[in-house]
Structure formats: C-alpha cells, structure tokens
Amino acid sequence: MATSDSWAQDVITCNLCDKPTQQFCNSCQVSLCETCVKSHKDQFKSLIHEIVPFLDRKIQLVCPECQLHPGQRCEANCLQCSEPVCFKCVISGPHKGHEVEELTKTHEYIKQKIEKDTVEIKAKIIPEYQRKNAEIENSMSKTKSQFDQIKTESEKLRKLWHQEVDSIFDKIDSLSQSHREENLNVLQSYHTKIRKLISEMNETVKQNEKLLKSIKLSEVRNYQSKVKEYEDLPEYLDSHMPTLVSKVDQGKELSIEIGDFRAILKQLKDKARLIATIPTDYKNVFDVACVGDSEAWIRGNNSNITRIDIHGTLKDTVSIIGLLGLYGPNGIAFTREGELIFIDSKSQTVKIVRHGRSETLITTPQKRELCRLHCTRSGDILIHMRNIDMNLKFVNKIIRYQGQRIKQEIYNDGQGNPIFTDKFSSLFMSENNNGDICVSDTNAHNVVVVDKTGRVRFRYDGRPARRKEAFGPIGIVTDTLSQIIVADYNNNCLHILDQDGQFLRCVDDCGLENPHGLSVDNEGRLWVGCETGNIKVIQYLKIK
Fold this sequence. Notes:
InterPro entries: 6-blade_b-propeller_TolB-like, NHL_repeat, TRIM45/56/19-like, Znf_B-box. The chain is built from seven helices and 33 strands. It has three domains: about 10-90, 2-Layer Sandwich (Double Stranded RNA Binding Domain), CATH 3.30.160; about 105-245; about 270-540, TolB, C-terminal domain (Neuraminidase, 6 Propeller). Helix content is about 25%, strand content about 35%. The strands form nine sheets. A four-stranded antiparallel beta sheet has the order 10-33-32-31, with no helix packed on it. A four-stranded antiparallel beta sheet has the order 11-12-13-14, with no helix packed on it.
C-alpha cells in the first residue's frame, strides 16, 4: 500500500497554487483547483475558457492570444509577415489578403527543424568537437613530454660540458620554460574555448529537447537555430615547437642551440680512457642498458636479465622462464618512464617489468619473429621483426609501435627495393637526437640511417676507418652530441661518426674483445659489453 508520502508525490497540483488539481482549462492547458478557476478566468477575461473536470481534460496545442483583437486566439501564421494571426487579422485586419497557413503546421515545421538540428549537433558536431578536444589534450601531453625531454637532454649535456658553460644551460632552460609556457598557453586557451563550446552545445541540446516536449506554440516559435554558429570549429593556432640541436665539427667546434639561441664551444681531440672493467656471470654480454650514471641492466647468454653497478655488484635480477635454457629474452631497452622492457622469444611478445613482475606490453602479428627493440624519445617502440616470404626468403622490417598500434613500417625505399638485407641476423637500432633511426645491418656489414619518414639518408661501410678485417657492425648507440657509435665485432674497436655519417675516429685502445652491446650513461661514458663476459666503461669525450 502506498504511504502518505508517496501518495503526496503522485498528486498533481494546481498551476496557480499548491492545492490538488480538480479542474482543467482545455483552452489554456492549465491545471486548476476549485478556488483558482475564477482567478484564472478573471486574469484572461477576453478569452473563452473551456473548464472541465481534470479527468476529462484534452491535451492540445495552446494558441497565443491576439494582441490586436482581445478574446481571439491566433490559430494561423502569416507567411508574408512570419507572425501568428487571428481570424479577424486575416478578414479585416492588417494581414488582410496575406497568405496564411494553420499555426499547427508552422509549429510542426519548427519542431521538425529543432529535431533535425538536435540530431545534427548530437551525432555530428559534438563528436567532432570531442575529437578535437582529445587531439588538443594529446598535443598538450606531447608538448609537456617533449619539453621535459629537452630539459633532460640539456641536463645530460650540462654534465659533459665544463663548469664555465653553466650560464649557457641556464639560458637554455629559461628559453625552454618560456617557450613551454607560451605553447601551453596557446593550447590551453584553445582547449578552454573548445570545452566551453561543448558545454554550450550540450546546454543547447537540453533546451532543444525541452522545446520538443513543449506544447506552447509561443515557446517553439521563438526557436533560433545555432547549428550554423557551431558547425565550423574555431580556428586552431598550431604551437611552434623548438628543438634542442647539437653539432660537432671534430677538433674545431661544438655547438648547441634551442630556438634562436646558440652557444659554441671548442671540442678537443683526446684519447679514450678506460674507466672500469666489470666482470659478469655471462660468457657473452649481448645487451647493455644504462640506468643513471653508475648502473646498467645487462643481458647475456642465459635466461636472466641482471642489474649491476659500475663495481660489478648485483642489484637486481629478472628471470625469464624458458625451456632448457631456450626462449630467453632477445633484447632489452628502457621506456621513457624508466621501465625495463624486453622481447620474450617464447611468446613472441614485448614485456615490461613492473614491481618486479613482467607483463605483456605488445602482442605482435603471428608468424613474425621479434629480434631486437629500442625505445624512442617520444615513447614509441621500434621492433626488428623477421618473417619468411612466399619465396622462403627472410624479410627484415623495423616496426614502430605507438602503444599497441602499428604506426610505421620501415623496410623498402619507396621503389620496392629492400632497405635491409634479407638474411637471418638481427638489426640493432638507436634513435638520434634529430629523429633519425640508426641501424646496424649485420647482414649487409654496414650501418644504414633513415629519417623519421623511413627515407634512407646515408650508409656507412666502415672503410674510412681503414681497419684490417672486414667491418663487423653490431651494437649501436647515439650520444647527446648526436654522434653515432658502432661496435665493430671483427676489429675489436668502436667507430664514431657524426650525425651525417662522416667518420670521426676509432676507439681501439681500451682492450676491447669482440664488442657487442653498447649504452651511454648520464656521465657520457660508454658501457661496452664484450664476448669475454666483461663490460668496459670508457670515457671518450673531453670538453673544454
């Protein structure tokens, strides 16, 4: 049984007071109590009021009262003047001879227009604004990330350069912050405008939906469409993104620039110096990924990935479950957030280590073997994949992943010619500061560098170094000066190139034995994994 409270909620009250409704004016579509019937008639004396018991009410459109002829309701619409008119207006009044139509038809047309506009705003315009809003939020995130990366790079360079250049980097940080605020202010302003318009459109939709339910012609007739106002997105002003660029002219000049600011120092030639030799439990160190300035994750000839410091102390171990030593990790790298990722050769997936446990990060297409990987500054992951084509030939590709989505495939030069040699060995990769992808193609015995679009910029075959044995490129890394360092397995040395592929020098005086994995720490020192199971830490730059 309903309670007194629920019964009270179901009672329909008088439109003029709070008493229960007993009567209804069909003419004005107003609910009335017995007391308010007289008040209602007195308020609109000029009009005829059809008062009936509430249960006998008829729901119908309410025609407005004519302003020129009291007591008359406007039941037509003057098409010439576009306003409601009564019978007397048409017969003998100011609208005599004008073409008219029933006001109900006008009402229905306007409601159809409201419904059409509402559908367009909800189904087309708002989603477009929401997509733009998501793009702006993504741009803001990327802008923050890129400026954070610039700051990180400038800090690395600060450590490499002498104390006298602190003022240069202070200037760089100041300009970077200024550009950051300027760019984010532009994006934030546009972001705010987009969100405001979305809010306005949602309010418009609510008002339109309310009008669609309205039975009052005067309310519907005053409707003004806002579709034209909203259908074109506000003009988007793209932000200007400065880049942090450094260049080296060997023995002459070292420079760094951001925006219009440029600083120049001299770089002196100097012999490389062996800082440390770190023994490991591996027979061969395949991969090195430096952590800060004194530690590194390393991978060798078993199923474990270990973290050691420069003194050889074991800090951490990640065990990959394999079968009889098979199916271990294929490659290791660090994400932009500092998390370790690796290729699980058993499941052919990319996994990430979080809180001491590994979990799947990327699942790749079937029938492709994952060989190596590398993390870019933007957060993308480059994966060397190998598969066998219809002619039973190996096909080597570098796939760029953005999250779980394939963003780019690098494998041919646009004319159908393969960029990488179609053989079995792995491709080693490193991204340079200018976005180039530097690849050690062990099958072709050369280094190939492609730009962001996958276009080949140059190849290096090792001949300028004049080594005794054939060039045997394997591990590859780039430093904060945009130099490219390549491990030459056959000649027990490192080749150092500038970012345009010009040979600078060889590091061959630090006792390297079949060098393999390479990484650069935050102090600008090279960590070189060797086939002996040792890691050599080398200082190869001297800045004045």
